[in-house]
Amino acid sequence: MQMLINENLIDKAIRLDKEIKEKKKELDEAKAMLQADGLSEMENKNLKYLQIFGGGGSCDLSYKQKLEIENINVLKELFGNILDSKVSKREEVKYEVESKFKSALIALYIGDYKEHDIDIILASLGLDDNKRKLAMKKLKGEYIADKKLLESLGAIDEDGLEEELDIIKEYKNYELVKRYIDIDSIDDKFKNELKRAISIEDSLSLGLSYEK
Predict the structure, then answer these.
(1) Do residues 139 and 23 touch, judged by C-beta distance below 8 A?
(2) Spatial contact of 30 and 36, defined as CB atoms under 8 Å apart
(3) How far is Cα 95 from Cα 74, in angstroms, rounded to an integer?
(4) Domain ranges of the chain
(5) Alpha helix (H) ranges present in 69-152?
(6) CA 174, chain centre distance (Å)
(7) Residues paired with 114 in a beta bridge
(8) Contacts of 20 (CB under 8 A, 6+ apart)
(9) Which residues, 6+ apart, have CB-to-CB distance to 82 below 8 Å?
(10) Burial (CB count within 10 angstroms: exposed 0-12, middle 13-18, buried 19+), residue 182
(11) What's the pLDDT score for residue 212?
């Protein structure tokens, strides 16, 4: 029986597959170079987030943390019964941590929380009372979303809001941590015990933004 498969389509599929693999390799290499250059810039400026613009869009770099629970009993000693509603146990002995509590644990572990007077920060960006009140309600501690919000309100800064966005994230983390624990009770012993209870894997996240 004669096969009805179109040979031209086979050739096209092979050609496209090769092109995709080649472009994927080029993209991975470009991303690796962007990550290396971006990491150097972030370390030089002591930043946790960086946005770099090109002619057709932007590259967003930020630190990303992965949390693993190492000792649930130690963690329960630190936070008490709140864990019953924030952490669940899977069959394969994997712990699923509620999103906001996970963010608070990561902030505690890496020390990325601090009380700031955000109103003063917003005022320094040229925002009036009404815009500052609106910003305070809508800021989330998420770099990209917060930057878009501040820019939409007319915030002015020569360095692209880099330091201000770090400060806002620290403050939002501070507010989050306060939900679960008395910050004044956090001492060196607590921090050491927390590092027994959980581990954090740090990586650099890269995202590309452009009009489709």
Answers:
(1) no
(2) no
(3) 14
(4) 47-210
(5) 72-79, 83-86, 99-110, 118-124, 129-138, 143-152
(6) 15
(7) none
(8) none
(9) 101, 180
(10) exposed
(11) 59
Mean pLDDT by 10 residues, the chain (212 residues): 67 87 89 89 88 87 89 91 86 82 95 96 93 94 92 86 93 96 94 93 80 64
> Helices 143-152 and 162-180, interaxial angle, to 10°?
120
Contact 141, 150 (CB under 8 A): no
Any idea which residue has 């008490």 for tokens? 80
Q: Is residue 109 a contact partner of residue 166, using CB atoms and an 8 Å limit?
A: no
State the Cα–Cα distance between residues 164 and 124, nearest whole angstrom.
10
Q: For residues 139 and 44, what is the distance between their CA atoms, to the nearest angstrom?
A: 26
Output the six-digit token pair for 141: 């501690």
What pTM, to 2 d.p., does this model score?
Answer: 0.67
Are the CB atoms for 79 and 180 separated by under 8 Å? Answer: yes
**CA 131 remoteness from chain centre:** 25
User: Left if phi > 0, otherwise alpha if psi is -120 to 50, otherwise beta: which for 28?
Assistant: alpha
Identify the residue whose tokens are 């002995």: 93
Helix or strand (DSSP H, E) at 66:
strand 57-69
